[in-house]
Each structure stands twice: as C-alpha cells, then as structure tokens.
Design goal:
It is a single chain. It contains 16 helices and 14 strands. By secondary structure, the protein is α/β, with parallel strands linked by helices. It has an 8-stranded mixed beta sheet, sandwiched between helices. It has a 6-stranded mixed beta sheet with strand order 11-10-9-12-14-13, sandwiched between helices. Helix 8 packs across helix 9 and helix 11 crosses helix 12. The longest helix has 24 residues. It is globular and about 60 Å long. Bound molecules: adenosine-5'-diphosphate. Adenosine-5'-diphosphate binds next to helix 11 and helix 13.
C-alpha cells in the first residue's frame, strides 16, 4: 500500500512516498518557493539521484498536481488509486489532540482555530490538505501533530506557566512543545536498539538541529519538553534565543523604538548562533571558525552546551535520577561529534562516560558511551516521515 507523508510550509511542500508496511521510500522530494515568481522542485526516486526542475508554482495546489503527475510519469505509481492515504505533519495541535487524527470538518476546524499559535505553519498545513482533497478526492488524510506526544504525557505541573490563570483559560497560554513526532520516534527506536521495551526505560532525547528541543521520556511517556507555547522557548538554537528574561522584550522595544512583535521576531530569527556569533546560524560554519581558534565561536557553542546540560540535569532529576539513555539526533545531534562530546563531557557528574573514537562517526545509529557509563549515549537519525506514514496506515485502515 502506498502512503504519502507530507510536510507543508508556507512556501514549500516536502513529501515522501512510502510502500507500507515495508516502510520502503519509493520517492521523495521538495517543492520550494511556492507563490513566488519562480519556483522549483527536486524529486528523487528510490535508487536514483535527485533531479531539479524550475517551474512557476503559484500555489500549493499546482505543486500537488505536478507531484502526482511526476509520480505517474516516472512510473512510481501506475494509477493514483494506489495511494491509500496522505499524512500531514502539523506543528500545532494545541490542547485538542493527544493523538494523530483523521482529517474531517471537526479536526480541520481545530487546526484552523490554532492558527494564532502557529500562524505560518497551521495555515500552510490546511492549504496542503485542501490541495490533496482536490487532486486525490476520496483518499483519507491524517493530521500528525508535533505537539500530541507531549500533550498526551505532560502533567499540568509541567505544562502550566505561572502566569495569571485567565491567560490559560482564555488564550490557551501554556507549554505545548514541538518535535513530538521526532522525540517519540527516537525514544522507541532507542529502546528497540537497546533490546528493551520502551515501557521499561527512561530516555532523554535531544533533537538538535537548526531548531532544537529536548524531552524527558518515562516509559514511553513524555513528562516534559523544552519548547513552549512556541518553539522559541528552551535552549539556544540556530537563530532562536531559547529562554531569556522576558523583560528584554520591553527593554529593547523601548531603546530601539520597536514594537514587541518586532523584537520577538528578532529573538526568533536573529538570535541564537547567528545573533551571538554575528557570523552564521549554521553549526558547520561555526565549527570551522572554532577550529581556526575563534573565541566567539567557542563561546557560542559553550553557551548552548551549558543550557542543554541544564535541561538534561533537570530532566534527570524529574525522572527520579533513573535515566537509561540519552539520545542525540537531528542535523547537529546526528552529525557533530564535537557537539555530542561537549555535552557529554559536562554530564560526568551523573555518570556519563563516552568513547571518543566511537563517537567520531555520523549520520547512522550507534551507541558511543563506554561499558561503565551509568547512562547509555546514543546517536540516532530521526525519521518523522516514517511515523507519519505509520500513523496514516493505522488510522486509514480503521
Ligand atoms: P532544521 O531544524 O531546519 O530541520 P536540521 O535538523 O536540518 O535543522 O539541522 C541543521 C543544522 O545541522 C545546521 O546547523 C547544520 O550546520 C547542522 N549540521 C548538518 N551537518 C552537520 C555536520 N556534518 N556537522 C555539524 N553540523 C552539521
């Protein structure tokens, strides 16, 4: 059975077509610069190289139509009827969703209601859903929420902010988290690699890419996560500050004659690696600088490492000092031995010991803690798309 996994952004559409239940990727690609004067798309078929086409993509519907035509033209599907379900990644599911959900009028209404909390994302997800409704009428679609894994597990004490209660009841101000699909995948995959049932292990997952978040997972249940109402909370990231004193917002607004929204935008887009280094938001660029002896680059990484370790230490505590494994994933977590070493070196007090040789690999799953480490350390590539495909099979076959 062929299942499509979709991630729609405001000007992009990423897809992976799976053969399920084998979980074989038949084709994948991305449509970009949708809605701009000129767009483009890249598609790679299983076993072939990615090819690139420049074409105007006035809206998501045109992108979906082109995608389906390409699948037919390339013989990846012989008929569109072979596609039995489409799963969409959704950034914000708010308090409503603790599980993935079938796309229907109710769930679409809720995703629409939550646009305020994720303006660019949720709007784009709905546009993507409508484009598939038009071009694959009758095919069941699924919403898979970045928030539902967290929402299912976190207690009130973990997700409530100490703000006026009314802000919560009237506006839904609380922690929702993000990257939930990735954290869930990583915890299950780590348990599988450890040869254990996820119910029997406690794991701290570190999804560290351009966006970065951590989660404390007890027996497969998420007890806390570092992102908040929006992805701005938590650890410093490529362009996001992570936690700061909120007073900074009004202070800078006043000093620079800006409104709060503009300052928050700078906390989202001009801070983190980029803001501190005044050079780049990309870890590779900064690692290169650091290797050349650049003190600022070193400081940037140390600021982040301190905060990441603060979270790990607090999650270790929250999990009762019983942590079986720490997992590193996403662009930086998977690919940067330096990043993993920097973090693990600071975890010595809780008994973490790593093998630097083994750690010096990238982009595949491996354990790099030593046999006498009290906590296992794993590098595991994340796979959000396969979770979307699995949920799509589960819900469309019901
Ligand atoms: P996003 O949050 O946009 O999905 P990614 O997970 O793709 O981000 O991560 C992007 C980050 O991963 C960038 O900072 C990039 O420099 C970093 N990265 C990718 N490959 C490497 C590498 N080989 N070494 C160090 N960092 C890397």
């Amino acid at each position: 059975m062929k299942i499509m996994s979709i991630n729609c952004g405001s000007s992009s559409l990423k897809f992976k077509l799976f053969e399920m239940p084998e979980e074989k990727v038949l084709a994948e690609g991305i449509f970009e610069r949708i809605g701009m004067e000129m767009g483009d798309y890249k598609i790679s078929q299983f076993g072939s190289k990615k090819d690139y086409t420049e074409v105007a993509l006035p809206d998501h519907s045109v992108a979906v139509e082109l995608l389906l035509n390409e699948l037919l033209k390339r013989g990846i599907v012989n008929s569109l009827e072979e596609i039995k379900g489409v799963g969409h990644r959704v950034v914000q599911g708010g308090k409503y969703f603790t599980e993935s959900a079938l796309v229907d009028e109710w769930s679409k209404g809720k995703v629409r209601e939550l646009i305020d909390l994720a303006p660019l994302h949720n709007k784009a997800h709905l546009i993507g859903v409508e484009a598939f409704e038009k071009h694959l009428p009758g095919v069941k679609q699924i919403f898979v929420f970045d928030t539902s894994f967290h929402n299912r597990g976190m207690k009130e004490e973990a997700f409530m902010y100490a703000v006026p209660w009314r802000w919560y009841t009237e506006y839904g101000i609380r922690k929702y988290g993000a990257h939930g699909t990735s954290h869930e995948y990583l915890s299950k995959e780590c348990a599988r690699l450890m040869g254990k049932d996820v119910k029997d292990v406690n794991i701290i997952t570190c999804h560290i890419g351009n966006g970065a978040s951590l989660a404390a997972i007890e027996g497969g249940v998420c007890k806390d996560t570092s992102m908040g109402l929006t992805p701005l909370e938590g650890v410093p990231m490529g362009t996001r500050t992570g936690n700061i004193d909120p007073t900074v917002v009004s202070y800078i607004a006043e000093k620079e004659g800006k409104d709060a929204k503009t300052v928050v935008n700078e906390l989202n887009k001009k801070s983190g690696y980029l803001g501190l280094s005044e050079y780049s938001s990309d870890a590779r660029d900064l690692e290169e600088k650091e290797e050349q002896g650049d003190e600022r680059a070193k400081l940037v990484f140390n600021v982040q490492a301190k905060r990441v370790v603060d979270y790990i230490a607090s999650y270790w505590m929250y999990l009762g000092g019983k942590v079986d494994a720490i997992v590193f994933s996403a662009g930086i977590g998977e690919n940067s031995p330096q990043f993993r070493e920097r973090i693990c070196a600071r975890l010595f007090p809780i008994g973490v010991k790593i093998d630097k040789e083994v750690n010096n690999q990238r982009g595949k799953a491996f354990k790099f803690s030593t046999a006498d480490s009290k906590i296992e350390c794993w590098c595991i590539p994340t796979d959000e798309e396969v979770v979307i495909a699995r949920d799509t099979v589960r819900l469309t076959q019901k």
